[in-house]
Write a structure and sequence with these properties.
214 residues, OB fold (Dihydrolipoamide Acetyltransferase, E2P), 7 strands, alpha+beta, seven-stranded mixed sheet
Length: 214
């Protein structure tokens, strides 16, 4: 368990926890991933531990070229699961996403559901899908969570990289939701009266467009 890093009181972003993210691979198969991003200040103890552990793993796997490989990974965001929040730009506004500016992030995921920890510190029975969904629905982008993550090294035809497994999540507290949050439209509605059938009034007949006539 020494390579599992505990991240205390970090903000959750882009969560795909209730339902996995599904993406096609180059081979045409579907890649399933339960994932999220975890935001924290640059001096967060958990982030420092994560970087230290990742550095040790790189040195152990590629001892003769560790410095060069680490530099290559640092220089290309595709090869690392972490980074400076200021580099995560919204493609519409060209500004950092909500909550990212001034922080660092770790992207973590796995192909099966992560362990979900209840408020009392006990894990949810993985076979209890109702309890799992009930608690994961509380985990929205912007809330605070505690997380257990595990760095691992990629070394295949796609390159050498530092990746991260999402081991477990625990809801910690509410926070300001990222983006617009849930839209409340309740002010548009009134009480339903018994005599109202709900049917819309008949609309006047519209002429057919030219390509449907004749």
């Amino acid at each position: 368990m020494s390579d599992v890093i505990f991240l205390s009181n970090v903000r959750l972003s882009f969560p795909n926890i209730i339902q996995p993210q599904r993406r096609p691979t180059e081979s045409g198969e579907e890649r399933v991933s339960y994932n999220c991003e975890l935001l924290m200040p640059p001096d967060h103890l958990g982030f420092k531990q994560f970087m230290t552990e990742a550095g040790k793993m790189v040195s152990a796997k590629w001892p003769e070229h560790a410095a060069s490989i680490m530099q290559m990974i640092q220089n290309d965001r595709k090869f690392r699961c972490y980074g400076n929040g200021d580099e995560k730009l919204n493609k519409k506004t060209f500004k950092p996403y909500d909550g990212y500016a001034g922080n660092v992030y770790i992207t973590a995921g796995r192909d099966s559901q992560p362990q979900i920890i209840q408020a009392d510190g006990t894990p949810i029975d993985p076979t209890n899908s109702m309890a799992y969904q009930q608690l994961t629905r509380k985990m929205y982008g912007g809330c605070y969570v505690n997380a257990a993550v595990k760095p691992w090294l990629q070394d295949n035809k796609h390159g050498r990289a530092i990746r991260c497994d999402l081991i477990a999540l625990q809801f910690a507290k509410d926070g300001e939701a990222f983006g617009e949050g849930a839209v409340d439209a309740s002010n548009l509605f009134g009480a339903v009266t018994g005599g109202d059938s709900g049917a819309a009034p008949a609309a006047p007949a519209m002429p057919l467009p030219p390509f449907m006539q004749g």
